[in-house]
Amino acid sequence: MTHILSRRYTLMGAAAVALSVPGLSSARAQPAKVIRIGVLTDLNGPYAANTGKGSVVGTQLAAEDFMTSHPDITVEVIQGDFQNKPDVGLAMARDWIDRQGIDAIVDVPVSSVALAVAGLVKDKDKVALFTGPATASLTGSACGPNHVHWTYDTWALAAGTGRALVADGGDSWFFITADYAFGHALESDTTNFVKQAGGRVLGAVRTPFPGTTDFSSFLQQAQSSRAKVIGLANAGTDTVNCIKQAAEFGVTRRGVRLAGLLFQIADVHAVGLQAAQGLSLTEAFYWDTDEGTRAFSARVAPQLGGQKPSMIHAGGYSAVTHYLKGVAGLGYDQAKASGRAVVDWMKATPTDDPLFGRGLVRADGRKIHDMHLFEVKSPEEGKHPWDYYKHLRTIPAADAFRPMSEGGCPLVTP
């Protein structure tokens, strides 16, 4: 079973064994094979429902499944709440690597923190599995040999939702944007797709992050623009609050459409089908897709108070599964010695798991898989708890993510 251990507990346990069994043979006294994974996440803030404990659970389940088939390797999982602050996140990640022997860091849902951690794992030759952040820069100008970007990114979200709404008549947009790296990137990428499809962007307003709870003035500015679509370039509770307040002010009753550009299953649950119905959104995973996704969700939901897993929770399971396959495939000693070597193995070996199916990790570190365009059901259409999505279409992996030639990743040979 996976252990959530502090460094102190681990050291005390090791000492206790050494003291209580002084006559261990040299063969039995060999150091245990241990891989340590740290889930750097938002446990209490605006992204907690879509990352947080669910990301820890997804990681733990991947570790448990791996240890079932590889009993000679122990996988330890620890968790940390970085409070959505880059300085706190980077300090925690550094301490994990320097003092607690962490081999891989998972999740990191804030883009600015992820960009800092990407530099750290490169310097320390460890691994980062970015399942939570959105910025496509992680496989563009900020790509690196020691990290992989899983699940989704701003380019994929913009391509899926932006194209679909312009094609459906939403040809004028106004953005309400979280004022940090993620929000800026999502607005920029969506703007490009709107314009490429023949649409116009009439304006944008930036909202302080974190800390904004009243979006009324921003929604009024969006309405005043007379845009057909209000693009919400934010996430988590910011998106939930925007949609709830838009419903209170009757924004959608006036013919304006809301585009939740990063809108996930827990957000739909928080808003409710009455207010969220009809929204288009792009996701990499939906719990009720097939037997594999439902089986995973049945393992996760009891640990989350009944909540179905998000695509980021699923991404944690998928990414850690492939990483641990790399540890076994490369060999434990070499994997411990070099995170870069494990990432090279992950790029050279196709991915395959029950949640995302078959895929690959490109040379720029981008994990490639199908994305899906969904529409939120009406209250009448939802037949059972968490029955929230109508599948509109699948976006093939080859079209779902930015072409590697356009990203500007220095790892990619022109």
CATH class of the largest domain: Alpha Beta
Helix content: 40-55%
Poorly predicted runs: 1-29
Instruction: Enter the CATH topology name of the largest domain.
Output: Rossmann fold
Mean pLDDT: 90
CATH architectural group of the largest domain: 3-Layer(aba) Sandwich
Strand count:
15
Structural class by SSE content: alpha/beta
CATH superfamily of the largest domain: Response regulator
Compressed to H and E, one letter per element, the order equals: HEHEHEHEEHEHEHEHEHHEHHHHEEEEEH
Number of helices: 15
Beta percentage is 15-25%
Q: How many structural units, i.e. domains?
A: 2
For the biggest sheet, the summary is: 5 strands, parallel
Explain what the structure shows.
It is a single chain. This protein has two domains: 7-152 and 290-369, Rossmann fold (3-Layer(aba) Sandwich); 155-283 and 376-400, Rossmann fold (3-Layer(aba) Sandwich). 42% of the residues lie in helices and 19% in strands. It has 15 helices and 15 strands. Helix 12 (311-330) crosses helix 14. The chain is globular, with a radius of gyration of 22 Å.
Show the helix and strand layout:
Elements: H1 7-20, E1 33-41, H2 52-69, E2 73-81, H3 86-99, E3 104-107, H4 111-124, E4 127-130, E5 147-149, H5 154-167, E6 172-178, H6 181-196, E7 200-207, H7 216-224, E8 229-233, H8 236-248, E9 257-260, H9 265-271, H10 273-276, E10 280-283, H11 291-300, H12 311-330, H13 332-337, H14 339-348, E11 351-353, E12 357-361, E13 367-368, E14 371-376, E15 389-395, H15 397-400
Helix pairs in contact: 2-12, 3-4, 5-6, 8-9, 12-14
